[in-house]
Amino acid sequence: MLQAVKSANPERGDEPWVGRSIERVEDAALLSGRGRFIDDLGVAPGTLHATILRSPHAHADILSIDAEAARRLPGVAAVLTGSDVKAVTTSLVVGVKAPVECWPIALDRVRYVGEPVAVVVATDRARAEDAAELINVEYRPRNAVVDPLGAITPGAPVLHDGFPGNLASDRAFRYGDPEKAFADSPHRFSIDIRYPRNSCTPIETYGVVASHDAGEDAYEVLANFQGPFSIHTVIARALKVPGNRLRLRTPPDSGGSFGVKQGVFPYIVLIAAAARVTGKPVKWIEDRLEHLTASVSATNRATTLSAAVAADGKILALDWDQVEDCGAHLRAPEPATLYRMHGNLTGAYDIGHVKVRNRVVVTNKTPTGLNRGFGGPQVYFALERLVQRIAIGLGLDPLDVIKRNLIDAGAFPYRTATGALLDSGNYQEAVARAVEQGRLAELKAKRDAARAQGRLYGIGFTAVVEPSVSNMGYITTVLTAAERRRAGPKNGAQATATVGLDPVGSVTVHVASVPQGQGHRTVLSQVVADVFGLQPRDIRVNTEIDTAKDAWSIASGNYASRFAAAVAGTAKLAAERVAGRLARIAASQLNVEAGDIVFAKGFVTSKHNPENRIAFSRVAALSHWSPGSLPDDAGQTIRETVFWTPPELTPPDDEDRINSSLCHGFIFDFCGVEIDPVTLETRIDRYVTMHDCGTILHPGMVNGQIRGGFTQALGAALFEEYAYAEDGSFLTGTLADYLLPTTTEVPEPEIFHMETPSPFTPLGAKGVGEGNCMSTPVCLANAVADALGVADITLPLVPARLAEIVRGAEPPPPAGGTTAAPVRKGDRRLSGEGQATVKGAPEQVWAMLLDPATLQSVIPGCQSVDKITDTHFRADVTLGIGPVTGRYRADVELFDLDPPRAVTLRGGATGALGFGSAEGRITLAPDGNGGTKLSYSYDAAIGGKVASIGGRLLDGATRVIIGQFFTALARKAGGGGAAGGGFSLFALLAKLAGLFGGRR
Amino acid sequence: MTRLKADSRHAVRFSLNGKPVEGEAEPRMLLSDFLRHQLGATGTHVGCEHGVCGACTVIVDGMLTRSCLTLAAQVDGCELRTVEGLAPSADRLGVLQQAFRRNHALQCGFCTAGILMSLDHYLAKNPAPTEAEIRDLLSGHICRCTGYTPIIKAALEAAAELTSAKKETSDA
Amino acid sequence: MKPPAFDYLRAESVGDVLDGLAQQGGDARVLAGGQSLMAMLNMRLAKPKLLIDIMRINELRRIEREGETVVIGAGVRQADLLAWPKLSEALPLVALALPWVGHMQTRSRGTICGSLAHADPSAEMPLALVALGGEVLLRSARRRRRVAAKDFFAGMMLTARADDELIEGISLPIVKGARVAFREVARRHGDFAIVACAAMRTQSGVRLAVGGVADVPTARDWPKLEGSALDDALNAFAYELGARDDVHATARYRRDLVRMIGRDLIGEVLQ
Does A630 fall in a domain? Predict the structure, then answer.
């Protein structure tokens, strides 16, 4: 059942345009293939194309990089390694006080799979990729750590010496008297959460085109960057130029961002450096494998949350212990994800006492950055799961516990314990309306009926506050008050809008909001049309940004749901300022008081005498054609730029209270889910979401934001995870492994609205884009917990994981039959053992094992075998499975030789597709018939590209190869001499690395 | 039998939205890149280059085709349709496109071209689809902005409108 | 993510293909629908020196009844077979399984034989071939041969096809009045199967074929079993398949599905 979006009748009377779902001005071009995305725009003749060679290792020292063959390839202009980049740039700034650097490319060490190691610049992308394959990088692997709690365990591998124990920040906060509240409360509830890694994954990837003017040492960059433009300062600093020598522009269209395209900035530095080194414009379009592996991710977080609770379910105090995992580098603006919600750690509830410990850790994973919801999903998953646990623990209805704790409607503006000033709301009313309009009673009856039939049906609830318009100073809460005093105050959220009138009186609006699909141009045309009494089609809006020419500030950009509240409001202020002057001009022309002037239907008119009017365009053009005839007090009306920052966004105070955001919408969700008893798949039966985002500017777009956020949240709840093995291998490197929801998985949520305007914003609007990313994952988890009657729920809700929780012991294998295959250890090491009977005496088999000449003759694709010592061989092999082929360098050493009885082989192979390492013990014994009984055990590990994109098939393929190769050995030893089969650890390793899985 | 050598560029000719086009490509050049960068038909977008996201979907000889999984050389002599060919004229949108605009069935618009091509192809053969059929068809596309339901609504509305328009024509 | 360089041969006859394969051997790959191969080329996992495009060869596009079998040529796209009017009657199991192959946008290009050549253990067409006991028709410049389904799949992405051989087509038996059932569990619609099961009533009892668990699709025949004997047989089969963990499912979950879905399907076809 689809919910209708009310479409406005554009010819309707005098009603304001704001609030109507007019058709979007953006759509005609996008629907007919005339969008202008970064890769659609032409480039200067001679522009070069870059590709990036990336680390296959999660943690390793770079011993050497040999790029000679790559540089010699025709068409290749340059290969930049870390030292080349370092020569022309400086480290990116790091957001905490620590002696740590952060480079956009690895210098002498890689710290995550996908970290850039070299940039190849060539005449076209395919040639650049050809060259990248010719680069030989020698790595010395180090132990990796991927778990945030593991990273701060003594003895864990350390990523940066400047972050001892991998701890980048450790701060404790105390608000009110939490110790007393816990001591005095009859109940204490606690929950441990592991929030996974995921990303909103726009369909357009990153893109950068950069050039460098050596004469002026100035950079010009076009990138689908989304802001915040505080990052402009980070980029300029890294490129060692003042801000006025970094001209950063954005293309007219951007294919979605959801925070993610903030993360393009290290690549801006990298590609700009390549442009400087080559002296040519350089273009780089990220591919999907790069994007999934190494663009950016939301943070994963380990949280322990405790609550002091009264008998009636009233929460008296919270105790947060959050360990935030920012990946391998602390990239700007991290650790912002952790502090974005700092003012909102009490959610929608009136809780007076709060204790917080916030730790920020680094691990061998992709660095984190902006992602829709930004800290909200992590916080609310803990808080709202805990609320459900409290209800169950006290035998109360979860909805009653929510209602008991909601902030009172009369309390706004309400200051939270941790410092946020909640602007407006009526949470009780919103919940009551949602319960009624969303038909909760019916859903409960359905649950009862389903359960009576033995079905697995559950209901979940969530109440959240959705912050919007970030205080640029919230991140400084990570510093102590003393550190903040030294650094100087940071706060506010400068929004900017420019309204211009041209010589024929038509209106242009320019803002620095960098939309990525939200329809800002349409909404601004509505807002400004209302001020001038025009039609939206009369207003032309430009949202491209050019830092060399446009009004912008550090808060500019498309993040923190700031458009409706801040940018659209600022555009209104700018239009009103122009309108005020136009009114004075018109008043003098119409011989009335300025207060008598109204703007309506294309005219500037006297309110008292509507006949007395003048066309808007005539008044609007006057500043151009006859500035001398303007009244003295009017000033010009050609162009007006307004900067607006709300006074409520103050810096953190000395007690670390921080009003982290300006506006706070309210969301109350509930849903019914049913779990399939066989597959344990979660089906969303009905999802109800009530929003109060203040004044609604465009209902169709607001609902679009809600549906979009809901769908991304559904993905996060049910499907999506950036999964890593314990050794740091990345396991979800294709869209066949990182599973985004499609039409067949996404139902239509039932959306309800209530409008409590914000007193702090010009239009009364609040942000709405991120709320469901915060509320929906935990709402679904609560419903699944209710359906299954379980306490611990971890996202994503993979059916196989639920099976571990809800299903009892598995039926054992039949006696005497095959036993279950050993469960693979988490570090991607595969082990196994087997036996084969081989013709020929052990001595013969032994000789064959150790003879490189035999090896070379029987290894398919073997180019050469070099005998380094009697027990150390090096080979160059080209091998594959099916169509998957790759070239590898293999190294094998023999240990513990006990001729002709046993030998241990240890070695590794590396190539463009990845690397493998293995150790095997082979024992030979006479079988009593003149042959040999050969027993083997092995332990192998595979990593790199092949693990990222072939994970699904990896284990099975390994098993096949190992079996195959011992069969081949048996055949060879038996004199069968099959041409294709030879026994060799080289072959094994090469084949291990040569596996693939993909989508048909 | 034609054998094209790896290291040189070869002529590729086909019909694009009813007009003959020609360009040069190495054998390895993908159709998506050929359309976009050789012919300037940038309406077809590239989202994954492994056939999953659906953004690059075009129609080749009446078949829905992932242009990222197709070589330019493969379509020599074929008839191609892309998003640029959907509108009846440069300043007017077709019925399906209008339904998308009316229903806010796009936000960033990056995945939209592929979805439109799938729907255009499907509706021509299946004038009265059910919601389930549209969902099945579009499960071969990924959209990150809209949550899909406005797209499905637009598709069903367009189908109804196209059917009634056809009926009116045949009644007349 | 651009393919490595290769020569491209647009074959106009089977002879062109066989010549190309004979000359280039393992360095040549046959390009049919391209739905697996092209992705592998874009990822640079495959590096053939020569691609042989077979899709302009008319003689490979046949779907024909030959006695008690249906022969499907290498050029037959999945969508072509789905649209074949006699599909449900002649090959009811294929009619059930085929809509699960990828998406409409990939079935329109992808071929039946290409899916078999790729030999993904989770794919539906290899499962159907094994369940039905079909044959693969291989041809090289040297010889023609027919390989039974169970002998064709040698392992994960490995088949009995020699480097110089073209899969010219397959032959599927028409099982008169057969009761068949098919069910698949994947993370999302259109994904590779975590477990796919096909069941068929046979003269002596029932056959269950399972994909997505072992390295190759695997079929098992039983006499008519019921109750705990059936449970025991399914349990033993589930373990014998040697399920493994991956990012999408655990071995235990796969065994659970084999036991539960297997039981349901067998019940369905024996009804």
Answer: yes
Annotation: CATH topology of C180-270:
Enolase-like; domain 1 (3.30.390)
CA A561 from centre of chain: 16
Residue A1's pLDDT band (cuts 50, 70, 90): very low
Q: Considering its fold, how many domains does chain A have in total?
A: 3
Gap between the Cα atoms of A404 and A28, Å rounded: 49
Helix (H) / strand (E) element for A487: namely helix A481-487
| Nearest-by-Cβ selection for C190 from B4, B5, B139 | B139
B54 to chain C: nearest residue by CA? C105
Task: Check CB contact under 8 Å for C5 and B27.
Answer: yes
Bridge partner residues of A673 (DSSP):
A458, A684
Contact indicator for A947, A994 with CB cutoff of 8 Å: no
Q: Show which of residues 159-178 on chain C sit within 8 Å of chain A, judged by CB atoms.
A: 159
Q: Output the six-digit token pair for B7.
A: 């290291």
Q: Give mean pLDDT, residues A777-806.
A: 96
| CATH architecture assigned to C7-53 | 2-Layer Sandwich (3.30)
| Over residues A115-143, mean pLDDT | 97
**Whether the predicted interface score ipTM is above 0.90:** yes
Indicate the range of A513-517, A948-952, B43-47, C168-172 predicted with least confidence.
A948-952
Mean residue pLDDT of chain C comes to 95
The predicted-structure confidence for A556-581, as pLDDT tens digits, reads as follows 999 999 999 999 999 999 999 999 99
Q: CA A690, CA A711: separation in Å to the nearest integer?
A: 16
In chain B, the domains with their CATH numbers are 10-84 (3.10.20.30), 95-171 (1.10.150.120)
For chain A, the residue count is: 1000
Compute the distance between CA of residue A231 and CA of residue A262 in angstroms, rounded to an integer. 8
The Cα diameter of chain C in Å comes to 59
Are the beta carbons of A882 and C190 separated by less than 8 Å? no
Report pLDDT digits (tens) over A709-719: 999 999 999 99
Instruction: Answer whether residue A978 is part of any domain.
Output: yes
Q: Tokens in use for A820?
A: 């279950």
Chain B neighbours (≥3 Cβ pairs under 8 A) are A, C
Q: Yes or no: say if B114 and B56 are a contact pair by the CB < 8 Å rule.
A: yes
Q: What is the C-alpha to C-alpha distance for residues A258 and A262, in angstroms, rounded to an integer?
A: 9
pLDDT digits (tens, 9 = 90+) for A872-913: 888 787 666 666 767 778 787 888 989 889 988 887 778 877
Residues A642, A101: Cα–Cα separation, whole Å: 37
What pLDDT, in 10s, does the model give residues A355-390?
Answer: 999 999 999 999 999 999 999 999 999 999 999 999
Residue with tokens 């019909």: B15
pLDDT for A988 beyond 70: no
With an 8 Å Cβ cutoff, is B137 touching chain C?
Answer: yes
- Separation CA A121–CA A358 (nearest Å): 42
- DSSP notation for A391-442: HHHHT--HHHHHHHHBPPGGG-SEE-TTS-EE----HHHHHHHHHHHTTHHH
What distance in Å separates the CA atoms of residue B72 and residue B88, rounded to the nearest whole number?
Answer: 27
Q: Is C251 on the interface with A (CB under 8 A)?
A: yes
